[in-house]
Design a protein that fits this description.
It is a single chain. The chain has a domain of 31 residues. Helix content is 25%, strand content 0%. It contains 1 helix and no strands. The longest helix has 13 residues.
Length: 51
């Protein structure tokens, strides 16, 4: 068996790992909470962001 080759870290030492995501724009905090809770129940890994 061969060991998978990992790419070396960048010049600054940061190891980049590609990720994919979706942003859901909500009208207010109450809707944001409801959407978060529903997606969490469906098994998604979530992060809450307010901008």
């Amino acid at each position: 068996m061969t060991t998978p080759v990992k790419p070396p870290p960048g010049k600054n030492g940061f190891k980049y790992r590609e990720q994919f995501g979706v942003i859901v724009v909500c009208t207010d905090a109450k809707t944001q909470e409801a959407v978060y809770n529903r997606l969490k129940l469906l098994g998604y890994k979530l992060r809450v962001v307010t901008v």
